[in-house]
Amino acid sequence: MHNEPAKVRLGPPPNTRELAQFEAQCHGSDIHTPQSMLTLLFHTADIHLWGFDYKLGGTRRDLNELKAAGLLCNEVSDLAKLGYQHQYGIGAGESLLSLAVATFSSLWKQCGNPQAFVCHHSYAGSASLPCANQSEAGFMPHAQYFPAVLLREFDLDHIPYLGSFASGCTGLFSLIMTASGICAFSSRDPVICLTADIKPVGTTYDSLREKILTTDCSSGFVIGREVCGYQLLGINYYSTKRSHIPLVEIVKLTVQMVRNLTKVLGIEGDSGGLIIHYPNIFPDAWDMVSKYLKIPRASHVMEGFADRAHCLSSDSIISLAERHCGQSGRLHVVVNFGSGLHLGVGIFREKERRAPAV
Asked: What sign does the dihedral 277-280-286-290 (CA atoms) show?
């Protein structure tokens, strides 16, 4: 955990001329304004997140090792130029299930008696595990849905579970939107939220066009009404049917969505110690967002970019875990971008740490 104030990680101080050029570029581009953006306000709902935990694959490789093993489609120099150095993949004896078992065990101890379990996967293939008998003709044995298989590992039953994958690496917000609805209209018992993914078979750990390097991982948290961890204040969420969005549009939309949400929540001037969390992708885009937002005394972070690369929907969960230091009242803005395509912005208020689980 980080007990010291978060340090600005992205780029030099804003340059007035550079910002003016960027603004002109944005106004001159075909920018889709988020008119159908989903805005959810939770600041009076008393919803909190705590118990953050994560598990990375057990094999750490550098870029050269990945290339030699045929696990990269990009040149090493292209990924190194962005700042990537290492990633983590599952090792011998590890699997998607074993990563999730480690995370769920911790969450279960934090939660005690969950009223529900919400699971998300950035890859659709992670949502259902392979049938033991692939030649089975009937369809039912092939429905090995991941949450049910995971609950069997703990001999837990009668816990309602839900799953998703269509929101890609914006899974943090899929988990929160689903679980907060459960909390708002049911008992006060908390909900376990978990996301887990490993590289699909036959693919590389990187993407060619986007220049993204990924890690095998699982992570999660508990969501409920206990006052600790992070209070959920609001979410802005945007989706498009397009398969590609220019980086300049991602930047413009992110700035708009952050400004809109802070304005709606009435926290525009409440920026003392503010931390903005970005996913470990597109560093140039987030560098421009950080400059264009021009929020005084804000820290802009991409947690573990060089060491563990992009942890899919776990990026923000890991970052929130690492940056919580019990500084009650400090604001955190979380930015997510995922295939689909989706862009999400959430705002949280840090609370005191929860007493350790016995």
From this structure: positive
Contact by Cβ (8 Å): 337, 257:
no
Sequence-ordered strand ranges (E) for the chain: 38-41, 48-56, 59-62, 86-89, 116-120, 128-129, 144-145, 161-164, 191-197, 206-207, 212-213, 217-224, 230-239, 275-277, 299-301, 331-338, 342-350
Q: Which amino acid, one-letter code, is at 193? A: C
Distances in Å between the Cα of 124 and the Cα atoms of 128, 195, 358 are 8, 12, 36
Can you read off the two tokens belonging to residue 354? 């929860």
Instruction: Render pLDDT for 232-279 as a digit per residue (tens, 0 to 9).
Output: 999 999 999 988 888 899 999 999 999 999 999 998 766 668 999 999
d(CA 110, CA 21): 49
Evaluate whether 121 touches 127 at the Cβ level (below 8 Å).
Answer: yes
Question: Where does residue 20 rank: exposed (0-12), middle (13-18), buried (19+ CB within 10 A)?
Answer: exposed
Cis peptide before 341 (omega within 30 of 0): yes
DSSP state of 248: H
Q: State the sign of the Cα–Cα–Cα–Cα dihedral 24, 30, 35, 38.
A: negative
The pTM of the whole model exceeds 0.90: no
**What does the pLDDT read at residue 12?**
42
Beta carbons of 271 and 298 less than 8 angstroms apart = yes
What secondary structure letter does DSSP report for 310? B
Q: 190, 224 in Cβ contact below 8 A?
A: yes
Q: Which of 38, 3, 4, 13 is nearest to 297 (CA)?
A: 13
Give the SS3 label for residue 28.
coil
